[in-house]
């Protein structure tokens, strides 16, 4: 359509700009890539040397740069865009939101998220089958989500087999009234089994603090799945003298490695075509994505101004609580504070904009435990 004859793929993430060869991306090379998981270009963490990257873009005579990845990648793209602008180069920089975590703000969802939620169903289903087959069975599934629990929340909502979903945004506690152990005991007594989903970033404040970071500067997390498995086993064997059968499933990399599903493949086509149209129309410094179902170009500064996280005082989390019947682990006071924070000024999010304040009673979810300090 635009008469482009040369498209280069940069290998291995940002460091590939200055450390490795390029791959010519011809129609033949990319023809079947949507049927494979992973990336034919390779990926890496760290290695964002802005000056070297922009030198390499200049040296190679590249005039449009399309950068595919998660929230960190979009930040890196923005820094490249600023440097290109500073040098006065005529080079477009555009971002494509691709991450299973769905932690990129503004847009409806990132490419890969839908697939991850779908694939997580298989693990949750396995956990349910295993838990149901034994006496006092607990199926525990760990899902990805370092800082945001979208995969865990949506996988839980989709499955309906989950009795408790733990995410980074919703602090929880183990012992005492309204705690996780009490809830597990109740579920086992009532149903004989239960399924727990935990996002990898959940409850990290309860584990010993890790100071380590990966090459991109992301905090290296402790394995919360192993930790909580051990905690539950110890609690029931030592404190309750009760036999439980806990099966822990960690499908995280298996989920990330699958090819995109149909919905994600359609979304990917839409993102790819739109981002090229945007660049060809002369836009730069933007990420392409759906907002309220409409294709948009969002300036990097808007994409990168905050982290996208589950808002636990919004309706989606309330829907989850009422679907699992788990304790909310938060007090009325915390809910009200949190709502104030999220409803203030222009920060009103899409969910809360559906009703004006005057249409709302002072609603606090019924299942909020008011008794815990
Ligand atoms: N603030 C930043 N400035 C420049 N580069 C950054 C910044 N944050 C991250 N990057 C770079 O972006 C790349 C990807 O970042 P990161 O490893 O955090 O993954 P991501 O894009 O968030 O995707 P995911 O976490 O979903 O795998 C890395 O090369 C990292 O160095
Ligand atoms: O172990 P790795 O390859 O650094 O990736 C783990 C991280 O990648 C992500 O899946 C995003 O791709 C995060 O949810 C997770 O914390």
Distance between the termini: 63 Å
Radius of gyration: 23 Å
Ligands and ions found: adenosine-5'-triphosphate, 6-O-phosphono-beta-D-fructofuranose
Structural class: alpha/beta
Strand content: 5-15%
Strand line-up across the major sheet: 3-4-9-10
Cofactor: Mg(2+)
Protein name: Phosphofructokinase domain-containing protein
InterPro entries: ATP_PFK, PFKA, Phosphofructokinase_dom, PKF_sf, PyroP-dep_PFK_TP0108
GO molecular function, one term: metal ion binding
Structure in words:
Pfam families: PFK. One of its GO terms (biological process) is fructose 6-phosphate metabolic process. GO terms for molecular function: 6-phosphofructokinase activity; ATP binding; metal ion binding. This protein is of the alpha/beta class and about 375 residues long. Helices cover about 40% and strands about 15% of the residues. The chain has helices at about 15-20, 25-30, 50-60, 70-85, 115-135, 150-160, 180-190, 225-240, 250-255, 260-280, 300-305, 315-325, 330-345, and strands spanning about 10, 20-25, 65-70, 90-95, 135-145, 165, 195-200, 245-250, 285-290, 295-300. A 4-stranded mixed β-sheet has the order 3-4-9-10, with helices on both faces. A 4-stranded parallel β-sheet has the order 6-7-5-8, sandwiched between helices. Helix 3 packs across helix 4 (about 70-85) and helix 5 (about 115-135) packs across helix 6 (about 150-160). The protein is elongated. The chain starts with 7 loop residues before the first strand and ends in a 30-residue tail after the last helix. The structure holds adenosine-5'-triphosphate (ATP) and 6-O-phosphono-beta-D-fructofuranose (F6P). Adenosine-5'-triphosphate binds near residues 73 and 99.
């Amino acid at each position: 359509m635009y008469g482009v004859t040369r498209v280069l793929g940069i290998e291995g993430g940002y460091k590939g700009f200055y450390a490795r060869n390029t791959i010519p991306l011809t129609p033949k090379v990319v023809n079947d890539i949507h049927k494979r998981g992973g990336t034919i270009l390779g990926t890496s963490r760290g290695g964002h040397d802005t000056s070297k990257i922009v030198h390499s873009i200049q040296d190679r005579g590249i005039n449009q740069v399309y950068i595919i990845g998660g929230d960190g990648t979009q930040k890196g793209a923005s820094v490249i865009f600023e440097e290109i602008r500073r040098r006065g180069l005529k080079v477009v920089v555009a971002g494509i939101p691709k991450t299973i975590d769905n932690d990129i703000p503004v847009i409806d969802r990132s490419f890969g998220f839908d697939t991850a939620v779908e694939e997580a169903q298989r693990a949750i289903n396995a956990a349910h089958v295993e838990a149901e087959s034994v006496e006092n069975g607990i199926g525990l599934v760990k899902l990805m989500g370092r800082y945001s629990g979208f995969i865990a929340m949506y996988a839980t909502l989709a499955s309906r087999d989950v009795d408790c979903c733990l995410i980074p945004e919703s602090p929880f506690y183990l012992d005492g009234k309204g705690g996780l152990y009490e809830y597990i005991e109740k579920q086992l007594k009532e149903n004989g089994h239960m399924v727990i989903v935990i996002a990898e970033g959940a409850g990290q404040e309860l584990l010993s603090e890790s100071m380590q970071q990966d090459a991109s500067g992301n905090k290296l997390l402790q394995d919360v799945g192993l930790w909580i498995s051990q905690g539950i086993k110890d609690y029931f064997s030592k404190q309750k003298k009760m036999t439980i059968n806990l099966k822990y499933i960690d499908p995280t990399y298996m989920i990330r490695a699958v090819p995109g599903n149909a919905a994600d493949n359609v979304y990917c086509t839409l993102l790819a075509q739109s981002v090229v149209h945007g660049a060809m129309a002369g836009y730069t410094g933007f990420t392409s994505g759906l907002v309220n179902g409409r294709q948009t170009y969002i300036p990097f500064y808007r994409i990168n101004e905050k982290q996208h996280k589950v808002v636990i005082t919004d309706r989606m989390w309330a829907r989850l609580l009422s679907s699992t019947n788990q304790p909310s682990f938060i007090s009325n006071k915390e809910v009200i504070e949190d709502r104030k924070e999220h409803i203030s000024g222009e920060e009103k999010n899409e969910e809360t904009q559906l009703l004006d304040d005057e249409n709302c009673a002072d609603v606090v979810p019924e299942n909020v435990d008011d008794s815990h300090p």
